[in-house]
Amino acid sequence: MAPSVAAALRRHLLLPRLRFPSHHLRLSTTSHSLSDQSDFELDHPLPPAPDDDGELSSFLHHVSSAASAATSPKQALSLLHSSSASGPQPTSPSLLVRALWELRRDPDAAALALRYGDRCGSPDEAEGEGPPPPPVEAWHLAVWAAGKARRFDLAWAVVRRMRRRGVLTRRAMVILMERYAVANEVSKAIKTFDVMEKFKVEVDQSVFYSLLRALCKSKNIEDAEELLLLRKKFFPLTAEGFNIILDGWCNIITDVAEAKRVWREMSNYCMTPDGMSYTLMVSCFSKTGNLFDTLRVYDEMKKRGWTPGIAVYNSLVYVLTKENCMKDAHNIFSKLTDEGLQPDVETYNSMIVPLCESHKLDEARMVMDSMILKGIVPTILTYNAFLKQEGIEESLKLLQRMKEDGSGPKGDTFLMLFNKFFQLNEAGNALRVWNEMRRYDISPTRSHYMTLVQGLVNHGFVPRALEYYDEMKEKGFTSDTQLDKEFKNFLLANRDHWRGAGKYNIIPQRGRHFTRRPRIQ
Questions:
Q1: Which of 37, 89, 437, 446 is the most buried (most CB within 10 A)?
Q2: What is the DSSP string of 356-392?
Q3: Out of 34-38, 169-173, 327-331, 376-380, which region has the weakest mean confidence (pLDDT)?
Q4: PPR repeats: which residues (predicted)?
Q5: Rounded to an integer, what distance in angstroms lies between the CA atom of residue 15 and that of residue 106?
Q6: What whole-number distance in Å separates Cα of residue 351 and Cα of residue 312?
Q7: Facing residues of 41 across strands?
Q8: pLDDT category, 60, cuts 50, 70, 90?
Q9: CA separation for the pair 144, 151 (Å, rounded)
Q10: What's the rounded mean pLDDT across residues 412-422?
């Protein structure tokens, strides 16, 4: 086994143990996400991990030891099998799934653990009598981990083994399509869909729609629409299919012109918009502050006999607040009750966010207080709306309150604060937030470092930026070509400032050249 794989396995053993919730594990992600979130969802709920999960640690250590002693994955697997009598084994399906989740950042290690869990003889042994294969969640995790790391060769190897073991699922193929879409490999995502029948996996309209959603979510909306129309002979056009495209233009990329065009296309293909179609259009017009068209589509929706849901009323609250129609916005809350609905946290956020954007912080605080009195806990979106407008002292208090409420803060929150304070020309406050981030056990990612370093460079604090850039590289994050060039030019232009002869490194060692830090206001 390659040393990097063994090192990665050992590193996983040092990670905090994951506490699985009793509900479905579902973590959403956006592009350029800073946290360890994913779009992976287990098909079945998992039991919570024990407080002292020694069995899991022992199993991971066993896999790590085999990986360290082996020179290839095949040899590592043989070592695991040969020591299975004395070494720890995945004694339960949930243990194997938890182990794969711990190893999700290393697809090679996850694949090794999966193969060991699928202990039905040697890897090349023909199928026969033996223990049942691992649960589908384990296979799905392995496919997802490989695809997330863009190790599609490994992902396909897992899929082929699933086929040989007779456990290949549509979900596994959908996960693979989703990961191709995230990697902007549109043609390969479509090809994966096309080979499903070859792998004897049933293909129907729901799988086709999963492909369209994956393409739209990765902002390849035009490709999704083209595919929808090209395959209409095999998958007849429906309002649901057009809604997927409409959702892309309304929520993934808010483009009113494209949303209107798709709406007209539905009419051209004799498709009658349904309740979801109207909900999406109301959302689209609301996001752009178009009060007239928001109310027009809302009225048309009711005339067509569709009952507005909570999402529609949330959009109305947002656009009315944004356009300073506060009396009408508050009346929506009463209307919700009349319709048998209850305001949720999104309803309150739909009022709080535009109020904060308009710098009406006192009114926004009153709305949040009213929400809390009704037993509704603010979300990270609620706090972020305030953080975007507050000064440094109030921001630090909000971060503490977020922690107390269990609403964060997350890595994205700190990234937003870095950008805000650098835009306000307050580099010193950006550094205060950086130090505060460590208090909340948020490990800086490359995006955190790059935002901080670039901000310091832009504000003239190049030596200080060099220190953090050095720290970033020491932690194993990749360097930036443009910054390397800028730092090299800076060092060469200030070579007289750095004492000592010899070659100048692009990144000086901490404490060697920066004995005095410039004061940042």
A1: 437
A2: HHTT-HHHHHHHHHHHHHTTPPP-HHHHHHHHTTS-H
A3: 34-38
A4: 274-308, 309-343, 344-378, 445-479
A5: 13
A6: 14
A7: 26
A8: confident
A9: 10
A10: 93
Backbone φ, ψ for residue 313 (5° rounding): -65, -35
pLDDT, one tens digit per residue, over 458-468 is 998 988 999 99
Please tell me the distance from the alpha carbon of residue 119 to that of residue 81, in angstroms, as a whole number: 8
| Euclidean distance between CA atoms 317 and 330, whole angstroms | 8
- Give residue-wise pLDDT tens across range 273-325: 999 999 999 999 999 999 999 999 999 999 999 999 999 999 999 999 999 99
Of 156-165, 192-201, 475-484, the range with the lowest mean pLDDT is 475-484
Using alpha carbons, select from 197, 224, 198 the residue that is nearest to residue 212.
Answer: 224
DSSP 133: P
d(CA 179, CA 26): 16
Closest among 464, 371, 21 to 386, alpha carbons compared: 371
The residues pairing with 26 across neighbouring beta strands, listed in sequence order, are 41
Note the helical H segments in 200-269.
205-217, 221-230, 239-247, 256-268
pTM: 0.78
Q: Which long-range contacts (CB under 8 A, 24 or more apart) does 219-222 make?
A: 219/31, 219/248, 219/252, 219/253, 220/181, 220/184, 220/186, 221/245, 221/248, 221/249, 221/252, 221/253, 221/258
Q: How many residues does the chain have?
A: 521
Q: How many CA atoms lie within 13 A of 432 on its CB side?
A: 18
Residue in the structure block whose two tokens are 């709306």? 385
